[in-house]
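Model it.
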Amino acid sequence: MQARGLLDGLESRVSRGVIGGLFAGLVFLLANMAFATSQDMPAVAPMLDISTIFNLTEKPEVTPENISVGLVTHLTLSALFGVAFALVVPLLRGPRAVLLGALAFGIGLYLVNFQILGRVFFEWFQEGPNQLFELFIHAVYGLLLVPFFASALERVETAHARRTPAPLGATARSAA
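Modeled.
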């Protein structure tokens, strides 16, 4: 793909990435909070877990400060991950590719965050959170990004169609 195609609509895609990432991140967080309460943990447990990333601590410490730190860290990462997906969208052609790409993106986030970074730097993420649930909710995060890029994808496909020259026979027939 040409660099120009990747830069087309970049500002709009980045904005959509931030907004979509925040939206998907909030749904993700609410689901994690609901799951935590279903496991007899406090609803703030996900924010305490995420605070370990910012604080570089081995285990969550229950403080009001860490709840806020976890929330801010989570929302910031959600927005950044949304922007990362926005940068990939031009490589995905068609609605099916965007849907599958978003699903793969969410699963990829889980693999990188929990299975790689979690094993190397944040061991709590191997001990604390339920891995199957985290895999599922990361996939949902990716899928929740799709609606924020659906109209942008249509504009990219329309712009691509305008740049594609018509077949020679089509021009001659329409002139006749």
